Amino acid sequence: MKLDGYEVELLGFAEEISYYLQKSGASAENARDISQDVLVKMLESEIVLPFEKMRAWMYRVAVRLYIDRYRRDKKYWEILQREFFKDENVIAFDSPDYEPLYQAVALLKEKYRLVIDLYYFQNLSIKEICQVLGISASKAKIDLMRGRRDLQKILEKEGYYYDDFK
């Protein structure tokens, strides 16, 4: 497909916007989506702008879209955490052999307890944990490592070891 000069310039602006959004903290995927939305909006709109004002208009629309998505995602995660991480929604496991383990997990700090529960008891991946808790992959891995370390200390203090829970 052959693009004319106008479309080539718009594509250049869209790439520039994508890089700008990534530098501002947006994920690469969100930045590409937003810049594509802005590009499509520009091509579909019947707005007649002088070429020198088009770039500023596209940036303004991109920033507004990013803020809207950020607010929507933030509200979504708040609803998820409020509705799905209540005590009555926690699944109780029936095996009496694991009771000391569950009690030790309950003694962990909440941030470690959540990550350990999601990873080991709910079988979620690190990527899924990041999405559920709204944290980065490195934060999830660090919390998981620290939670395991604290859990091991608690269990060893009570006289339990790894072999007791196989």
Automatic annotation (TrEMBL):
SUPFAM superfamilies: Sigma2 domain of RNA polymerase sigma factors, Sigma3 and sigma4 domains of RNA polymerase sigma factors
UniProt keyword Cytoplasm, yes or no: no
CDD domains in the cross-refs: Sigma70_r4
Keywords: Sigma factor, Transcription, Transcription regulation
Domain RNA polymerase sigma factor 70 region 4 type as annotated: residue spans: 99-151
Gene3D superfamilies associated with the record: 1.10.1740.10, Winged helix-like DNA-binding domain superfamily/Winged helix DNA-binding domain (1.10.10.10)
GO molecular function, one term: DNA binding
GO biological process: DNA-templated transcription initiation
Xref: Pfam families: Sigma70_r4_2
Listed InterPro entries: RNA_pol_sigma-70-like, RNA_pol_sigma-70_dom, RNA_pol_sigma70_r4_t2, RNA_pol_sigma_r2, RNA_pol_sigma_r3/r4-like, WH-like_DNA-bd_sf
Homology family: Belongs to the sigma-70 factor family. ECF subfamily.
Name of the protein this chain belongs to: RNA polymerase ECF-type sigma factor
Organism of origin: Streptococcus gallolyticus (strain UCN34)
